[in-house]
Model the fold of this input.
Amino acid sequence: MITTRRYFVKLVGGAAVAAGAGLDAGPTRAQAAPVKLGVLAIRAGIAAPVGTAGLRGTEWWLERVNKAGGILGRPVQLVVEEESNPKDTVERYRKLVLQDKVEAVLGGISTGVTLALGPVAEDLGTPWLSWDGTTQKGVDETMPSPKWAFKSVDNEVEAIVAGILTPKYFKGIKTVAGIGNDYSYGHDCWESYQAVLKRYIPDVKFVLELFPKLGVTDFTAHIAAIQQAKPDLLMCSFWSGDATILMKQAAAVGLFKTMKGVFTTAGGVHDSLKKEFTPEGLLLGYNTMYFDDPNGSALLRQFVREYKAKYNEYPPYECDHAYFNAESYRAAVEKAAGGGTTWPSRAAVVKALEGIEVESLSGRRSWREDHVQMCNFYQGLTTHKNPYDFVTLSPLEVVSTRTAMKPAGAKLFDWINSWKI
Amino acid sequence: MILRAEGLRKFYGKFCALDGVSLGVGAGEFVSIIGPNGAGKSTLINILTGVLRPSAGRVSFRGRDVGGIGPARLARLGMARSFQLVQIFPELTVLDTLQAAVVARLGRGTRLFASLARDRDVHAEALEVAELFGLGARRGVPARQLPQGDKKLLDVAAAFALRPHIILLDEPTSGVSTSDKTAIMEILVAASRRIGLQAIIQVEHDMDIVFAYSDRIIALHQGKVLADAPPAAIQADQRLIDTVIGRRVPSR
Amino acid sequence: MQKIFNLACGSFYALGAYVGVSAVSWYTSAGGPAALFVLPLALAGLAVGAIGFVVERGLLRFVYDRDEAFQLLLTFAVVLMMEDAIRLTWGTSPQSTSALYLTYGQVRVLGATAPVYNLIVIAASLVIALLIGGLLTRTTFGRIIRAAADNREMVEALGVDLRRVYARVFTLGTALGTLGGALVIPATAAMSEMGIELIVEAFAVVVIGGLGSMRGAFVGALVVGVLRAIAISVYPELEMLLIYFIVIAVLVLRPRGLFGGAAA
Amino acid sequence: MTARLVLGAAVVGVALAPLVAPTYHVLLMLPFMAYAVVLLGLNLLFGYAGLLSFGHALFIGIGAYAGAFLTGPLKVRSLEVILLAAGGLGALVAAPVAALCVRYVKIYFGMLTLAFGMVFYTFVLKFYRLTGGDEGLPFLRPALLGWSLEAMPKTDYLVGPYYYYSLAVLSVAALCMWRIVHSPFGLCLKTIRDNPAKAESLGIDVTRYRWLAFMLSAVYAAVGGALLGPPTGNVDPTLLYWTHSGNIVFMTLLGGFASFFGPVLGAFVFIYLQNWVMSVVPYWRLVFGAILAAIVIFAPGGLMGLAARRRRPMRVSGA
Done:
């Protein structure tokens, strides 16, 4: 969190006006003035680790870009604001655009917040690239074709990937129990997972569903209920400390001695899943970036190395979303400039972003034409055969959003039911 | 009889604070209740004013059973009271305190959007009571800034502003200097005539006051009525006085 | 007892948990025998309860003679500050001890497997409950506390220095909170918002049990715990709502709670 | 007279702000005006009836969700209807809640209101098919006085018509509340705040008056909550969360609950202070907590109290 402050730009009247007015003052002055990008990061509450990872990814990108001479010769500055509840975050967003006059806004994680941000971004006419906010419902209902808002992969992709991989790795599954957080992400994941699994195993029975509140830290009663239901498999979409807690408390009663386990998203807290209480052979999802990918790029290796050196942790996936957003913005500006040095208009940048493909930490990633992120999802079976004190994956499966995310305009369940299996 | 109590009993757990008390107060009477500490005076007052519900027995006020109906309803029926430990509204001025009482009496408290400042009746009536109690000059002073004696007067004045049929005064002169006691009592008597009060019940320790103003004295001892007689009869019974008062108490 | 409703109790609980994690990792890296890890854990939990003394002396004591609402507000201020203080100290990631939870092994109780550590914690809380009960009923200090809860002026008139009593009671309460936070840590992970769930449940417990009653709090906690477990296995959707319904029912039918002594 | 001059200048300043101030600061005035309505109501309960509610976010949430339901599924866009419905629904929910809560006073009242707030918070999170759960519901752009204004860019709509509409609502709300606190009812509330036992002895039905004050404050909070929705364009459960209740109490105290306009001033200062501190210090909660503690201890009269200096000398000594 210390780095937040280091890059924090405190705006003093004159400088801000100069930067904002730089656009109109002619190309020569504009080149010298730094380009400001707004960042929204969650700092408090359950998603704070995710926000922190996103911010760190962006800061790492910033250092590289500025070392390489900035974008079109302009150094880049970040203006970091806090993502909190929808009301305050909408105000922060307006501040970034109206007051700080940033060129684009990066970030946004919580679905509730990004649902509110979508229409505001459209209204203010500034590109907004969301790290992890899907805004599906709001965008579908209130703005079918967003112009300025770029959204994350759909909520339920990791559950769909897990649904595809479950029958491949676990044979003979007849009964399944599910546990997830009591909010949209948890419910979306569970519903899509059921829909996909039913396609592969038509006679599968879903015997129990549990939705504890977000932030609960005691699952003994839930685990007892799961034991009672005696499913062949437990599907869990926890993604924060609760995944670790559930794993610990499950180990205490030997839950996974009697059933298989699927943790669609627990890779977000991967380095807290210590070997002592995390068994081998669970299906574990790392979302869009796997720090230990044997086929990982040199960029990924460098990032993981420097991240570990700086924070003494191994990076989670949110770094990749954030890096991709910032990097795609840089590429789009350069593409829109068409080899020249004149800073392109915001509309031109947005046009250039559509369909653009860049190298991210997890390999090549792109924006679909309808402003949705494309990427690969990394899932696999947990193993203890590694030099760390936590579990990693072997074998590793990589599934692209081209196969696991509903195409533009499709209805989710119609699409799943139309698969040829 | 305006107020009648029959066979009142009150238990706190196993402790019996009142043990079959019966009494009545008629129109035009000034009745004093006396007794040593722990005789049950406070309990009796609290039952008569509806704060406590008796364990047994009944209280009727102007022919209505009022046992435990609560002080607010009883006040609206025409029974007002003052308190032993002075009770005021610290932040309210003298006039506002009395206006509040008048508002309550007239049932205008739920007028949400009416202007209090323009309510002439309330203002005039409150002012009249203030004058009656010699508080007219201090009508704009917040109650917390009044001297102790005036606080006591304000407490009683607010009860009078209700224009009750009957008023219960819980030690109206306690905590007041000897010289002021008579003054307060004179104001009380004058005011009660002025507002057409039908009866006064007071609990009082000061025997000079009790004998000077009462028409009748009810002596309590260990939760029972020991005597209920005119002052002269009580004064004549030295044994009774010894029991109830312990000793002949000169003015404090 | 003190008629302070402490919104910050959850924050103290979270603080205890974080300190517990730090203490245990320090202990483990210093090479202490694994079997004795509860000792540094419990000691750290108790020691950090000293924050209660700081909060009481530094903040709360200024408002005792004012409306009790101000105490509520001060504890709200503590909640705000503690959240950031924890973030400053430990960062945003959940903190967790490694496998110490299973150091003591598992046993089968009534057909279910339970970690021995859980049983130790249950035993410890029973002992603490008994100790508190004994403190309140058997000692002079306890009698003073109970008397002060009823009538502050009276106790002060008897020459008791209530400031010291309050400081001790508040510190004791805080220490119990931080100790609780530390003791659950092997079974869970420390997250900055872990206290918030606790506040809400603490409400339910206290209201069901009766405001201001220790026995009530104990029974209330049992009721809430058992109801939650039943709800989760029978009809999970009801989990938290069921408890709230019970709370409201208690309020309507028995405004003072099942064991309530404190007047409304 | 100076008070009237200051008030007049403030009203003129607020009315002219959209013409002169930067857009972003004008936008911040919208939550200020919405909270000001909420706080006028909250202070009837706290400043005048002496009951500190720690659960009023519940009614803000009810107002906001009422607006979201009306503009969304029910297709009612008229803000006048929305405000009426919000107030009505606020009263409907408040009736039983208030009846249970006003049986208690002081700290117990605060606890119970907080508990009820959390009950509804849990409810909103849990019944996510109805309420959208954590995602909340969109609050579509309401029509003002029959004009749909749909074609206007949102920002122009907010800093133009919606701004003046909010100002009008706030003015009407303030006038009504001014009358209420200066009515016989207001006087009776003050007697209850100062000394409930004595008030009772004067025939004032304390419970009933407290209940009425609670109802009024709930209606105000719901109306303010409905006003809070359109600038965000979305309503969500955090509006009902207990820390939101804490924030509005904070605003009340910051401005000073002993004065009629204190809480309004508090809302203004809180919003601009938060805006500034959040941008400058990542650990802004630490700063805010410290400010709150300092106000409670050293300036219980809030900003108004500091300005007036005519209140009782404060007591800072221990018990």
In short: DSSP finds eleven helices and two strands in chain C. Chain C has a mean pLDDT of 79. The interface with chain A takes residues 83-84, 87-88, 91-94, 96, 98-99, 101-102, 106, 112-115, 117-118, 184, 187-189, 191-194, 196-197, 228-229, 232-233, 236-237, 239-240 of chain C (CB under 8 Å). The longest strand of chain C covers residues 106-109.
